[in-house]
Design brief:
alpha/beta, Quinone Oxidoreductase, Chain A, domain 1, seven-stranded mixed β-sheet, six-stranded mixed β-sheet, Rossmann fold, 19 strands, 2 domains
Length: 371
């Protein structure tokens, strides 16, 4: 089959012929219908984050179940069958570790196994080059390909009426952004909320903030087109950080108090520090953006203590996908989450380079690869 392979850090990925082994116990084969082009893949391409190489890229996807491995079919939000449409999850859930049992499968121990081995939850790969040389999976998904083998615990069924591209982004960008608001932010109705970064995750946070009735909803970015879209999706105020000081603008908008909640969806030192300054006394900064593995940011100790501010991280929207993704799909079908507005250009696998050029140039809308 064809897949997008990254052989070395700092080199361009390319479409190559690869082999896909049969699924093992508890695994399934999914034919990919859509794969979102997410900035997280670029972190691995640039070396900001490390993964075993060579690998097949892609972690935000959806498709159709084509084959069930031995004993597979009892996960994914109910019994799985050939022909079911599913969204792929880059965080598996073993169901037995402390994180899974406590309702926080984003921290499942199997995620660490996948990250360190470049394999599936058992630590082994189903991918190889035609000569037999092993290829690695990215985050247990590798959906920049015509087909994937994944754990049945890494899918959620997609209802009729949800397009493949919406299902794909819902399982990463949307659940991360909407989930951060629904699962971490508390008592938001009528309370101010700042979103820093208006990419797919940030705009999803805006839609989540609108769902819960936050007010004002302030969005900061350096791209006027993205800020215009933020206003259409629920922002009450926007700040062009190239032209205005974010802390000053938030202080002005809130009458000097700052916001009780801030969601930082960029993953950079400067924006995290700005967001912290925008948080009101007793407020919370929720960090959802990833940066380089050695990235740090500074928190003023006295303001942290004297103002009783909090800084918390939220991985994957702190979501429980078998519960949260069906909610997201339902809200989409009811017209309350206009997720189509996040979709950009649809491209074939061969245009993966152009898709990443669009991503890095700040294009509005998430590019979708269609194998």
């Amino acid at each position: 089959m064809r897949a997008v392979v990254l052989r070395h850090v700092g080199t361009a990925p390319a479409v190559e012929q690869v082999e896909l082994a049969d699924p093992k116990r508890g695994e399934i084969v999914v034919r990919i219908e859509a794969a979102g082009v997410c900035h997280s893949d670029y972190h691995y391409m640039s070396g900001d984050l490390a993964a075993p190489l060579p690998l097949v890229l892609g972690h935000e996807g959806s498709g159709v179940v084509e084959k069930l491995g031995p004993d597979a079919g009892d996960a994914g939000g109910g019994e799985l069958a050939i022909g079911d449409r599913v969204a792929l999850l880059w965080r598996p859930r073993c169901g037995s570790c402390v994180a899974c049992l406590s309702g926080n499968p984003a921290l499942c121990v199997k995620g660490g196994v996948q990250a360190s081995t470049g394999g599936l939850p058992d630590g082994t790969s189903r991918l190889s080059f035609p000569d037999g040389t092993e290829l690695h999976h990215l985050m247990g998904v590798s959906c920049f390909a015509e087909r994937v083998v994944v754990s049945e615990s890494a899918v959620v069924k997609v209802p009729e009426g949800v397009p493949p591209e919406v299902a794909a982004i819902s399982a990463c960008a949307v659940v991360t952004g909407v989930g951060a608001v629904l699962n971490v932010v508390e008592r938001a109705a009528g309370a101010g909320l700042l979103v820093v970064g208006a990419g797919g995750v940030g705009l999803s946070s805006v839609m989540g903030a609108r769902l819960v009735g936050a007010n004002p909803i302030i969005v900061a970015d350096v791209d006027p087109a993205k800020l215009d879209l933020a206003l259409e999706l629920g922002a009450t105020h926007v700040v062009d950080s190239r032209r205005s000081d974010l802390v000053e603008e938030v202080t002005r908008i809130t009458g000097g108090t700052g916001v009780p909640w801030a969601v930082e969806a960029v993953g950079r030192q400067a924006t995290l520090e700005q967001a912290f300054e925008c948080v009101a006394a007793g407020g919370t900064l929720v960090a959802v953006g990833l940066g380089a593995s050695d990235a740090r940011f500074t928190v003023p100790l006295n303001r942290l203590v004297q103002k009783q501010k909090r800084v918390v991280g939220s991985l994957y929207g702190s979501a429980n996908p078998p519960i949260d993704l069906p909610r997201i799909f339902s809200l989409y079908l009811e017209g309350r989450l206009p997720l189509d507005r996040l979709i950009g250009e649809r491209m074939p696998l061969a245009d993966v380079g152009r898709a990443y050029d669009a991503l890095m140039s700040g294009s509005v809308g998430r590019s979708i690869l269609v194998p």
